[in-house]
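Module 6 notes. Inverse folding takes a fixed backbone as the condition and produces residue identities as the prediction. Think of it as a translation problem where the source language is geometry and the target language is the twenty amino acids. Below is one complete input and output pair. Work through it position by position during the lab.
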């Protein structure tokens, strides 16, 4: 992993990735009062066909060193990722703000889809695998996800920028 201290100008320390990854692995609840500043909202940025950015909130999970989200094939984010997989995801926690840059890919392996359904269900969204075994269904989802089936996407990270929001502070860019 390559690192760059973005706050060296202020004498701030180089941040370590392992506490960031450890915190992300604990989960990022979207319930009020659970995160920074008040809850965790993950923001996914994709690239529209005309090159402009498209940003939308997603219920992302951090699993095995990557962020995962779900959406229907007819959504703007799914169409954007199908055309150009480059994207970024950002979130604020109590101790740091994070932006991850990478490539999103649809994952339809039945074993992986089932594992992710269990993880979302454990977080409070009653997701389950649909009849195809390659996508998710549930009684509800975020309106921006469109109607079921919802497909699972994995963001393979290329880089991340972390801004510490507690002492001693710092800002570091990580390249994976």
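Target side of the pair, the amino acids:
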């Amino acid at each position: 992993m390559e690192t760059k201290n973005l706050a060296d100008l202020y004498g701030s320390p180089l941040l370590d990735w392992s506490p960031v990854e450890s915190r992300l692995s604990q989960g990022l609840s979207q319930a009020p009062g659970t995160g920074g500043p008040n809850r965790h909202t993950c923001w996914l940025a994709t690239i529209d066909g005309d090159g402009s950015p498209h940003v939308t909130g997603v219920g992302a999970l951090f699993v095995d060193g990557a962020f995962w989200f779900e959406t229907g094939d007819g959504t703007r984010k799914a169409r954007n990722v199908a055309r150009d997989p480059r994207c970024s995801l950002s979130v604020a926690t109590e101790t740091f703000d994070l932006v991850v840059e990478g490539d999103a890919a649809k994952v339809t392996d039945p074993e992986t889809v089932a594992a992710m359904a269990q993880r979302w269900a454990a977080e409070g969204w009653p997701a389950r695998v649909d009849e195809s075994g390659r996508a998710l269904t549930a009684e509800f989802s975020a309106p921006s996800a469109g109607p079921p089936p919802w497909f699972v996407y994995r963001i393979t990270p290329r880089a991340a920028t972390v801004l510490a929001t507690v002492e001693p502070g710092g800002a570091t860019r990580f390249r994976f």
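Reference fact for the lab report: The chain has one domain: 2-175.
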